[in-house]
Structure formats: C-alpha cells, structure tokens
Write a structure and sequence with these properties.
Helices cover 64% and strands 0% of the residues. It has 254 residues and is an all-alpha fold.
C-alpha cells in the first residue's frame, strides 16, 4: 500500500519528491489563500475605492474655485467689507454653494496643482477598479494565488504614478492628442488619468516609445534600418521570389 502510494505520487507529503519524475525537479505545492486574507484584501480594495471617489469629488469641486480665486486688491477688499451683512440681516445658505472644505483647498492650492492632485487620485481609482476586476475574476475561477497579494496592494499606486507621467508628458508636449483641449479640461484630465490607471501596461509601453524616440542613438537608427531591410526581404520571399540562385518558387497551395 505504501509502495503504490510512493510510486504514483499519491499520498506524498507537500514538498516531498515524487519518484518516477525528474530527479532534479521537485513539485511545488501552492498554499491556498485563507478566507481571512481574501476578506481583508477585498475590504482594502473597497475602502480604497470609497476614499478615492470622495477625494475626487472634493478636488473636483475645488478646481473651478481655484480658477476664480485671485488676490483681491484694496478697492475689492473695501467693497467686500461694505457688502458684509449686518447683525440684523438674515443670511440664507445656498445649497449649490461649495463647501467650506472646497473653498479652503482652493485657497491653499493653485489650479494646476489641483489638476495634478486629480490625476493622482484618478490613477489610484483606475488601478483600484482593475484590481477589483481581477480579484473578483480569480475568486470566481477559484484560482486565486497568494503570491499575487502584493500586486493587489500596490497596483492602484502604480496606476497613479503612470497616470501622472502620462499627464506630464502631454502637458510638456512629448505626447500629442487629437484634441488638445483634453489636456486642459478637468473631464478629459480625469478620464485620461483613470484610463492610464486601469491600463497601466499600455501606458508604460507608450512612455517607453516616447523615451526611445527622445533618446534615440546611432545604434538604434542602424538597428531600425536593418529591421526594415529584413522585413523587405521577407516580403519579397513571401511573393515567391527567393534570393537563392536557381531556386524554384513554391506553387499555389492545394
């Protein structure tokens, strides 16, 4: 009974070598993720999503205030003091008026700094949404692996960093858009940052392309020319013309 179990690999302890296989390779037994770890990771993503949405709304309401915020001159201050309501006046609150926190944020930070803060927040939001999508998908497929826990923890902040780099590249003129107003509108800024946070792989490839274009060396130029020549030769060979003398081109496929 013991010999059969050891010969076919059944009943072996985790991490033990199974006879009959490659003696230089040991089977790796993956430790399943506990229910507590899954709950904590899901709660982390949900809390991060709520925080980023609240921060996005806060910064969003402060951007138009910062655009109108200017240092008042002496005559303007005199007019504002004269327009201050007296003790007997009844002051009604406007529901559409921005909150005190939004006005305070607009006074502390400039409009361009608020745009940068919005980009970071939306990058975290996009990365969080992508992480939640992968988390739910692998839970449904029952193939959640513990070695990906760090990826779920840091994926939102990776999206924020890439979104900031892409935004700076656009504002700096290294990247061009079909509609340049996107880089100036809060709606376009938020959408671009959120998409960069979700699709970080595509954003990193675009940044790598920009880097190769800016810092292209002579070796890169020679390599690109060689690649073009090899592609041209490959296209000629596919048409049935071989570079070897006396070669007979292949006939049509039957």
């Amino acid at each position: 009974m013991t010999a059969n179990a050891s010969s076919d690999g059944k009943g072996a302890l985790p991490g033990a070598h199974v006879s009959g296989g490659d003696p230089g390779i040991d089977e790796k037994v993956e430790t399943p993720v506990s229910l507590r770890a899954k709950v904590l990771l899901g709660a982390y993503l949900c809390v991060l999503l709520v925080i980023t949405v609240a921060a996005m709304l806060w910064v969003w309401s402060a951007i138009p205030l910062a655009a109108r915020e200017k240092q008042p001159s002496a005559p303007q201050r005199a007019l504002e003091s004269a327009a201050t309501p007296q003790a007997g006046d009844i002051k009604t609150s406007d529901p559409s008026e921005p909150s005190h926190y939004s006005r305070g944020l607009a006074k502390v930070l400039r409009e361009d700094v608020l745009h940068l803060l919005l980009v970071l927040i939306m990058g975290v939001l996009g990365g969080t949404l992508y992480g939640m999508l992968g988390f739910c998908l692998h839970l449904a497929l029952a193939d959640f692996k513990p070695q990906w826990n760090c990826w779920y923890l840091f994926r939102p902040f990776l999206g924020a960093g890439l979104a900031l780099l892409v935004y700076l590249a656009i504002r700096g003129g290294f990247l061009t858009l079909s509609n340049q107003e996107i880089s100036l509108s809060p709606y376009g800024t938020a959408a671009l940052a959120g998409l960069c946070g979700m699709f970080s792989e595509q954003a990193s490839k675009k940044l790598a392309e920009v880097f190769r274009t800016l810092f292209r060396t002579e070796d890169d130029v020679v390599r690109s020319q060689e690649e073009k020549e090899s592609k041209t030769k490959g296209a000629v060979n596919k048409t049935g013309r071989s570079s070897a003398p006396g070669a007979v081109p292949d006939g049509p496929a039957q």
